[in-house]
UniProtKB/TrEMBL annotation:
<feature type="transmembrane region" description="Helical">
    <location>
        <begin position="105"/>
        <end position="123"/>
    </location>
</feature>
<keyword id="KW-0472">Membrane</keyword>
<dbReference type="InterPro" id="IPR002781">
    <property type="entry name" value="TM_pro_TauE-like"/>
</dbReference>
<protein>
    <recommendedName>
        <fullName>Probable membrane transporter protein</fullName>
    </recommendedName>
</protein>
<keyword id="KW-0812">Transmembrane</keyword>
<keyword id="KW-0813">Transport</keyword>
<comment type="similarity">
    <text>Belongs to the 4-toluene sulfonate uptake permease (TSUP) (TC 2.A.102) family.</text>
</comment>
<feature type="transmembrane region" description="Helical">
    <location>
        <begin position="80"/>
        <end position="99"/>
    </location>
</feature>
<dbReference type="Pfam" id="PF01925">
    <property type="entry name" value="TauE"/>
</dbReference>
<keyword id="KW-1003">Cell membrane</keyword>
<feature type="transmembrane region" description="Helical">
    <location>
        <begin position="239"/>
        <end position="257"/>
    </location>
</feature>
<feature type="transmembrane region" description="Helical">
    <location>
        <begin position="168"/>
        <end position="185"/>
    </location>
</feature>
<dbReference type="GO" id="GO:0005886">
    <property type="term" value="C:plasma membrane"/>
</dbReference>
<feature type="transmembrane region" description="Helical">
    <location>
        <begin position="197"/>
        <end position="219"/>
    </location>
</feature>
<dbReference type="InterPro" id="IPR052017">
    <property type="entry name" value="TSUP"/>
</dbReference>
<feature type="transmembrane region" description="Helical">
    <location>
        <begin position="144"/>
        <end position="162"/>
    </location>
</feature>
<keyword id="KW-1133">Transmembrane helix</keyword>
Amino acid sequence: MLETLDPGVLTFLALAGLAAGFVDAVVGGGGLIQLPALLVGLPGASPVQLLATNKLGSIMGTATSSITYYRRIRPDLRTAVPLALAAFAGSVGGASLAFLLTREAFNPIILVVLVGVGLYTLARPSMGQLQRLRFGHRRPRRHLAATLLIGVLVGSYDGALGPGTGSFFVFALVSALGYGFLEASAKAKIANFATNLAALVVFVPQGAVIWQVGLLMGACNVLGGYLGTRVAVARGSRFVRVFFVVVLAAFVVRIGVDTWRQLVP
C-alpha cells in the first residue's frame, strides 16, 4: 500500500500524524486531525481500514503520553484502572460494529462529529481548574458506577469511530466526577490507550490495518507528542487551541465538500 501512494500523500499523512500527536499531548482530540487526514489521503480505503490504521497510529502516541502522565502526575489507579478496563470492553464492542459502516455513511458521521466537537472546543468554559469530586470517599460505589459507565460509553464510541475520544474522556471525568483538568487528562490517556488496544485486538486479526501507513503516522504521532509537551510549557495552551481549531476547520471544509458532492451528484 505504501509503495503505491504518492510522496505528497505520504508527506501529508506524516504531517497529520505529527499535528495529531502535538494537539493530543496538550488538549486531546488528536484523532480529529488524524482520522480525517486518512479519510482525505486514502479515498480508496474502506471505513474499517481507516479506523484500524488510525488506531495503530494513535496507540503509539497514547502509550507515550500514558507513561509520561503516570510518571509526572501519579493518577489515582483506583479510578484509572476500572475506567480503562470498562473502556477496553466498550471499545471491543464498538470496533465489532465498525465493520457495518459503509463509506457513504462514514463521511457524514465524521463531519457531524467534527462540527460538534469543534463547536464544543470553542464554547466550553474554563472548568476543571479545581478538583471537587462529586462522589467523595463516603460514596465509593457511586463513584465506581459512574466511572464504569463513562468507560463503557466513551470506549464504545472510540471503537466504532474514535475522533475526540480523549476530549470526551476529559470532559466526562471533569463534569460528571469533578476531577481537575490535569488529573482527568492523566486518567483519560490511560483509558484512551486501553480503547486503542482493544480496537486493534479486533481489527488486526481481520487484516484491516494498513501497517506501513499506520506505523509512519504513529512515529510522527510520538514525535508530535514530544514537541507538543515542550511547546505547551513554553507557549501555553491558548496557542495550541488556536492551532487545533484552525486545522479542524480545514478538515470540516474539505470533508464537507466531499459529503456535499456525495449527497448531490
